[in-house]
Amino acid sequence: MAKNAKAESENQTFTARQAEAQDEPAPVGDVNRNGLWRTWIRGRARKLSHSTQFVIAAAVILGLTMFFVGNLVSVRIESAAVHSAAEAGAQYMDTFLEPFVQELSQDNTLSAASIQSLDRLTESRSLKQHIVSIKIWRADGTVVYSTNKDITNVQFPLDEITEALKGKVVTDLQELTQDENVFERQLNVPLYEIYAPLRDSRSGKIIAVGEFYEKADSLRREINRVREEVWGVVGAATLAMLTLLFFIVRRGDKIIQQQQVALHLRLIEQTRLHISNAELQHKMATATQEFSRVNELTLRRIGADLHDGPAQLLTLILIRLDDVAENCTAVDQESLETIRAAATDALREVRDLSRGLALPEINDVSLVEELQLVAQRHEQRTGTKVTLTLGQLPKAAPLPLKLCLYRFVQEALNNAYRHANGEGQVILAKYIDGVLNISVRDSGPGMAADAMQLEKSGRTRLGLAGLRYRVESLGGLFSIDSCDTGTSVNAQFKL
Fold first, then answer.
1. Are the CB atoms for 176 and 137 separated by under 8 Å?
2. CATH code of 472's domain
3. Fewest C-beta atoms under 10 Å: which of 78, 257, 447, 451?
4. Residue 377: closest CA among 405, 415, 406
5. Which domain holds residue 393?
6. Is residue 429 part of a domain?
7. pLDDT average, residue stretch 159-181
8. Which PANTHER family match (predicted)?
9. In the prediction, which pLDDT does 88 show?
10. What is Dmax (Cα atoms) for the chain?
11. Is residue 432 part of a domain?
12. How many structural domains comprise the chain?
């Protein structure tokens, strides 16, 4: 149709303008205002409960869905109502118009008698109540009869009658904007136009198209009534679904809120426990360091007591034995030599114990110097060789760790001397990725699998057990690797 072509042209113009508008950059002020609005909307949305947010989102989505459904149903109902009315009107008008157009099968014009008969028909009172205008179109688009005599025998585009020439009944309830609708527009009443094919009574061939305009008042009222009913049903269904969803989500929201409160309380309790555990760990570390300090003081005191007590008494015994030996017989001299040898060995052992318990000043030395010092003292005391394989070690370390490392290496070397005769004594130390590893190895015959278990006499290997407790008290890891080719005592600390 002509109006469709016009509408299509207007749509293309609007699309082009819209594309141009999209290419133009938005003003800076508009961008800032849009950003502020979006920020304000997000802030308000975060303050709403989950159920309210859900209902708003569901209302938008469900509302749009129901709007499209309701609009589709309304359009379909309107189309069906108009088409039904058009079918009835077309059958009604066929009865009146077809007898007058039979002559078009032989001639291209209507006779004067037929035109007069049609004029009388359109002027009848019963027909004018519904039909306000009639046109008869020839197949080439020429109007051979019209209530408006000004367009009689005028040819118009075939867009109006194309579908009707194919045998279809076409109806339109839109505004009448075509050139051939001047008369109908002047009536100022709502109309809908109907195109109906008119056939030859003998051959059934379409020889013309009848167009008539019917008042649309009653039809529009019926369509509006049905549309209101449809929208009422759709609105009620939408409201019912939103209400049901609101109560379901609200119940779930309450459960979530209760769980959030419970989780928050649990988090507070866990935080309190974590703080309490941290305080306990701090107290435990402090107690461990204090115990290590007290233990070292005790060992020093025992060493000093051994040096000042038993060592001095043994020295006095040896001196007195020399005085007694001058007045003894040969038999007594042999006994005195035996006593002197035992006292000398005891004195040496006491002095060794005293030197071992007396810890040198290691507060101001580095870890490398500390390991060199303990190896040197062991070599001087035992006359054995100790090899040091030291990597890059930290320059500074806390005093409790230094004390622990000194006693660890000292005891491990003593065990290597006693059980492996000091063969292959090696001290290995390395510091990688914040982890300090210390190992003392030997090339002896190794240790028995039950070395850390109770012996038959009920005594344990107090040296190794003490090493384990000392290392683990500072948060370190203690381990022993032993085989036929030697033993390795290992300690690991995370600094």
1. no
2. 3.30.565.10
3. 257
4. 406
5. 364-451+460-495
6. yes
7. 76
8. NITRATE/NITRITE SENSOR PROTEIN NARX-RELATED (PTHR24421), SENSOR HISTIDINE KINASE YDFH (PTHR24421:SF55)
9. 67
10. 185
11. yes
12. 1
